[in-house]
Amino acid sequence: MTDQWDRVTARIETYAEEMVQFQSEMVACPAIGPDNGGEGEAAKAEVIKEWLVRLNPDETLELNAPDDRVPGGQRPNIIGLFKGQSDTTVWVLSHTDIVPVGERSLWDSDPFVLRREGDRLIGRGVEDNQQGLVASYFGMKALKDEGVLPPLSVGLIFVADEETGSSYGLRHVLRTRADLFSEKDLIIVPDAGAPDGTMIEVSEKHILALKFIVSGIQCHASMPRPGANTLRASARMITAVDEALHAAFNDSNELFAPPVSTFEPTKKEANVLNVNTIPGEDVFYFDSRILPHYDLGEIESKAREAAEQAAVESGVRVQLEAFKGPAPEPTPTDASVVQALKRAVAVVHDREARPMGIGGRTVAGFFRQKGLPAAVWSTAEGTAHAPNESCLLSNLLADAKVFAHVYLGL
Questions:
Q1: Is 352 considered catalytic here?
Q2: Terminal CA-CA length for the chain
Q3: Does residue 406 sit in helix, strand or coil?
Q4: Stated pTM of the model
Q5: E strands of 253-346, at which residues?
Q6: What DSSP character marks residue 56?
Q7: What whole-number distance in Å separates Cα of residue 96 and Cα of residue 32?
Q8: CA 81 vs CA 58, 178, 182, 213, 400: distances in Å
Q9: Residue 196 burial by Cβ neighbours in a 10 Å radius (0-12, 13-18, 19+)
Q10: Model confidence over 182-213: pLDDT tens digits?
Q11: Which of 127, 162, 163, 191 is an active site residue?
Q12: I need a surface site. Which of 138, 343, 359, 366 has the fewest CB within 10 A?
């Protein structure tokens, strides 16, 4: 097995220019979903299929989701299956869609023409999620080129619609072909990570978004007595809710970064348009990321209690609307996929990777909802969604080695 590993890693080192070419071809296909004003992922999927056929998978599946908002009426989901010596499968799921470029003037070059500066590749999508897509592909290619039949089967999945909810992507795949996956499988989502490759995401926090609608009495600012100023009331309310939640729900869990629940006042809607009118209505929001052992209903109740007390003190009324996103059960830290990634990172990077929780959401959560242990991992610099999005070619090569190590069951 050591000889196989040495041959596979040496082979991966020869793939640098092919990796650049694959990235270049995908960057040239702006796979923006219709919810973000684009035409979907079809053109990019055709590029991926052309590359996939070169690996000669044992089976190729297309689980396209109907969507009449895009040309052709379908959102493509592609699976390439490579049979190993066991029915246990290593699945690597990457998404093909990207986000819009944002403010074009902040880019130093055309976002849809790959630019290379030494070790760095620049273009929309190169990190999110083409780095994971390319690395997982070339990890498998090295095994094929070296004639290695892995002890585990390998499945490469390329899904649509991750950036806008996954209804036409992974959720569609799980609705139509849940039978493909087993609890004994190793599922990797290379869509987040740390710059040194040591973060293995296994758990998510609950999400709780709170909308506060404050109602008072509008009047002229020069004669405030008849009025009830909702902006002043909102300021008092924000402070009261913030203090109440932090005091009541202050447990710590070192699995997560940050290790505590977060309660952040964020958005505020516009009220009056002129400076000399006291607002009679004000609307503001909290975004909260909650450690998973807490009950969201208790947090909502505490927020409501603090807001209503502040409303009474301010002579206004308040309504509260809650939008809840409960976290799925975490992937156990001793799950096979976690341990396989830890071993691979130790060999490739000579570093210790550790399981962690995050405050955001990834598509791994859809697997976990089905009782399927999934881990999120990649070597990510954190340029996703930013102007001049980039990835390092050296990270592509190293990540391909990590995937190959997992495929080999070492």
A1: no
A2: 8
A3: helix
A4: 0.90
A5: 262-268, 277-278, 281-290, 317-325
A6: -
A7: 9
A8: 6, 15, 15, 51, 17
A9: exposed
A10: 999 999 999 999 999 999 999 999 999 999 99
A11: 162
A12: 343
